[in-house]
Design a protein that fits this description.
By secondary structure, the chain is α+β, with helices and mostly antiparallel strands. 21% of the residues lie in helices and 28% in strands. It has one domain.
Amino acid sequence: MGKIKGTYILVLTLDEETTISVGKLITFSFPPGYYLYIGSALGGLFPRVGRHVRAGGKLHWHIDYLRQKASLDEVWYLASEKRLECSWYKAAAGLPQARILVAGFGSSDCGCRSHLLYFNSMPSFEIFRRRLGKAGRDMTRMCIDRSHDATRFSKKAV
């Protein structure tokens, strides 16, 4: 049995306005609020999510720069052999209050405007899942437990 592949969303929070240089993309002032970052992990879903949970380390992807400053609250994911990040981006972009703040963020290898969306208030997992229809019924929502060692994460579905 090979590595489990899949697509995921990182639900991030910034408590205050923060200026971040995002690699070669841009230096941008991110407002306080909630962010959804949509990604695929076809080389291994749980190792990739674990890397994002731990943060730190080498800055490789655009999200690594934001992750240095933003808290990770939840991960929404689906194990799948298919690359679903673009269809998930389209579904998430249709959520109430969704805004693109940084064009090209995380989407340099596809035609999407961005893979990062901003929200004033916490976006709804259930509404997102319904927007995916039948394809979203097997999604899992994982809450990050910050009361323990930051290098661990729990797969508690809520």
